[in-house]
Design brief:
The chain has about 325 residues and is an all-alpha fold. The protein has 14 helices and 2 strands, in the order H-H-E-E-H-H-H-H-H-H-H-H-H-H-H-H.
């Protein structure tokens, strides 16, 4: 009986005693397993494509048009006339582009420096570390409009910081830092630093948590100082996080409109007008949508080219930590 049961349970074999090859699944009308993930994300991908691709393509098309509701008799296909005017007949374009580059370099550099310092501090073990981390990260949770409103009140010449400094004998009463060409740039830089530094601190701290403590212990055993540990262990490990965060923040700072528009409106005398703010004024105030779309296209090409060059030179994701 046992032998009969064993024979019944054994898999069928061929004449030569080898088991038959596994049967291939029949091709039916069902979905192939490899295609299933793509089908699942297809609805979201189509929605994203519609909400992203259509506006981008419409901007490119409008850039080739004369589109100004206040001057309908001029509307129509313009070809490359808008782009010709940008590079040859618009003195404001080069000035705003230069200030945009200055704004990005100063803001991203200072935010990275202070964000790295804060991340290293709150990564240490000390009493009240959770509260310190919450205070460091809290400005990033504040919206851009609310941030602008806070700093408008702080820079108010009657009730803001300048009045209390004047009470202490520093400066004069009625001083408006946002109206003086000599102080407006440092003032807006400080306001944007308050909100931008936590972004770097969050990303860098998250990457610091993954650094093995054994590396620092081995370095201490070998006699490496804190300075050498920072440059030979910490910074190489943070390379990709720093590259990614600086690239993202550079794009965001280049497109920064809400803070500068609320604090200065691009003034005084156009001292704080970035290229995106110039685009906003051209489209919203002047209603010249064709020319504003051409400016947007130029800004898009500049950002795309700089991003590709930056990733290429920095070798993002290509080095070991």
């Amino acid at each position: 009986m046992a032998q009969a049961a064993a024979v019944a349970e054994s898999p069928p074999r061929t004449r030569h005693g080898t088991p038959p090859p596994p049967k291939r699944p029949r091709r039916g009308t069902g979905t192939h397993p490899r295609r299933l993930p793509y089908l699942l994300i297809a609805p979201a991908a189509l929605l994203m494509l519609g909400f992203i691709a259509y506006p981008v393509l419409s901007v490119f098309w409008t850039a080739l048009q004369h589109a100004n509701p206040t001057k309908p008799w001029r509307n129509g296909f313009a070809g490359l006339d808008n782009f010709t005017e940008i590079f040859s007949g618009d003195p404001l374009f080069w000035g705003t582009l230069t200030f945009s580059l200055k704004w990005v370099v100063v803001e991203v550099g200072l935010q990275l420096l202070f964000g790295l310092a804060l991340a290293l501090i709150v990564n240490q073990t000390f009493a009240g570390r959770a509260l310190a981390r919450a205070l460091v990260f809290s400005p990033w949770a504040v919206s851009g409009v609310l941030t602008s409103a806070i700093w408008v009140l702080l820079y108010n010449s009657q009730t803001g910081i300048s009045r209390y400094l004047a009470d202490a004998g520093i400066g004069e009463y009625g001083t408006s830092w946002l109206s003086d060409t000599g102080t407006v740039f440092p003032a807006v830089v400080v306001a944007d630093l308050w909100r931008g530094v936590p972004f770097f601190a969050i990303l860098i701290l998250a990457d610091l948590q993954s650094v093995s403590k054994d590396l620092y212990e081995a370095a201490e055993v070998d006699g490496a100082s804190r300075f050498r540990q920072f440059f030979h262990i910490t910074l190489p490990h943070l390379k990709d996080a720093i590259i990614l965060s600086t690239l993202l923040r550079a794009v965001w700072e280049f497109n920064n409109v809400d803070l500068l528009y609320t604090l200065t409106g691009g003034g005084p005398a156009g001292e704080t007008t970035t290229l995106p703010l110039y685009i906003a004024n051209t489209s919203v105030d002047a209603h010249n949508f064709g020319y504003a779309s051409a400016l947007t296209t130029v800004a898009f090409v500049i950002l795309l080219f700089c991003s590709l060059v930056y990733l290429r030179l920095s070798k993002f994701g290509g080095g070991d930590k």
